Amino acid sequence: MKFFRRSKKSISDPKSSSSRRSPQQAYDDVERDKYRLYNPRQDQHYNYVAERGRIFAPWLELPAPILERVFAFVCPHSCDKSYETCERSAVEDACMLCDLRDLAHASQVCKRWRSSAIRLMYHSIRIDSVHYCEREIDLSERRKRKSRFDRNGVPEDPAGARLHLLCRTLRDDPTRLGKLVQYFKTPYMLRESSAPLLARTIAVLPNLKYVDLPEGLFMDDPVHHTLKLEVQARCPGLRKMTYLAGSERSLETLSRGNIWPNLEVLELGRINMDPAILRHVLATMRCLRALKASDCRMLDDDFFRYSDALPTFPPLEELVLTDVPRVTAKGLVAYLSRDDTKQSLKVLSLSNTGTHPAALHDVLAHAPRLVTLSITEQVDSPFPTHGVPIPPLSNWALETLRYEITATPATSAYASTTAGYYNYLASSLFAGGLPRLAAIYVRDQTFPDLLIGLPPPMPGFAGSPQRPSSAGSTGISNNPFALAFNGPRGPGMLSLNQTLEIFTKGDDDLDWGSTRMDPFDAYGNGGRGRGRHGRTASSASGRPLSSYGLSDIGAGWQTGGGARMSVIQGDGHGGFLSVPGENMGSHGRKSSTSSFKQTRDEWPRPSSSQGPRKGDRDLWR
Description:
Pfam families: F-box (PF00646). InterPro entries: F-box_dom (IPR001810), LRR_dom_sf (IPR032675). It comes from Xylaria multiplex. Among the domains are: about 1-60, no CATH class; about 355-410 and about 415-455 and about 485-555, no CATH class; about 565-600 and about 615-620, no CATH class. Helix content is about 30%, strand content about 15%. The chain is built from 21 helices and 20 strands. A hairpin with an 8-residue loop joins strand 16 and strand 17.
């Protein structure tokens, strides 16, 4: 019993133990007082682990907004607020599962960090099937159910297991965790095969704004009828919904105004219903800002025009029309004639519609706030050049232009049907009507050559080109490019007014090749901060390169990026022989002195009558 006895002195004199404090205890008291001095209002959150370890850590007491901002860099996809599917919203060059694991580890540091990490972790939930890193190699082997007779085994379904765990966690605490979820994204195979489990999970998410749903739900498939009723009842705040062929009755029920009243994005695919009913449906959506219509044959110009018997078409920020041949430029101009629509529309995409590229200037003139324009058309006739002159493209707010004009499959490859369309685009750029344009996407690999500023070279059998007539001569030049290529740099030279990043893609290419075009000033030199002419390496643009390289964009130039350094001549036996010239041995400049002397001469020209030029000029420098 003597081991359980307490000293009478310690009971009668409680100050005796404090009088014999060790230096370590005195140091701990000083650290505690220091913490309370710098954090007078945070005494209840004092970190005892930091006190025992003699660590002064103010980062453990950061405010919640700053902590969430820091955690957003640890797990970037937790801040995803897009209305894209799981496949399209993936973060490039990152492993979403590893980022989520790091955020979960950070939530275990202290209670303050946990509350901020939990809010970020359940804000945008994303379920991935595999790790996008080297860790997947080891985990894929561990997931196999191996046995003595089956060494390979059947792999487990990691996405389904994660959905089961998530459903259990959310249903165990729906009041605190379920209300935090606003975006829920799942892989395609998981949402198509696990509809009942997905419905049980969605039932406890009242603040959901976007969720990946199976495609059968958008077509009113009876198999997904229960899931659709669950989404309508439990998730009234959805922002995006899609209706495909067969769901016209469900689309008509939106006109009541009690089903998803906060829809912002509506996607229609192969819908066949009365346009008047569709106008009533769209009029009830007060928050609608984006509309996409694909293969809707019943849409025409009257659908966008004003009518006294029908509600007005709502003003949109984004309008995407695909395979709608009855919508022409007249209908779009009638829609943009209203003050509210012309000030709201920022993105317009036209693909295989009735809007001809020659009438595109009229649409741009009525959309002063348009930032992105995309037109994709297949033409079978040349650009109209007869009759009334067509004004160039002009818009003071346009920043990105996708001008993808291709010829129909029935058109001959030697007809050059699309050449006039891209010449019209080049002349619009030289006219200066698109001052804020920064990126162009075209389906012609030779389009950057049109922006160099020089007329096309004459063929060898055509003789020497005639010089353009001077101001005092009355002769008429036979060169058709003499009048078109007269700019501030002199006869036969044109100049751009802004720096352009051009992305080109051929018919047989898989990726986009990019090049950057720098402008000239009035005297032929690069302006301040512009560098010198022409084409610079696309690595500075930060965009991916194509598989064939940028050198193939300019016709007649080799892989090195500069002028051709060899001459092709027949060998008399049906082949070709490369004959080296005087300066074929080196592709660089002769000396640094000559490179400084030739600064104003930007273009590699052939040798003059006085002899070869000093140094070999590089087209890309």
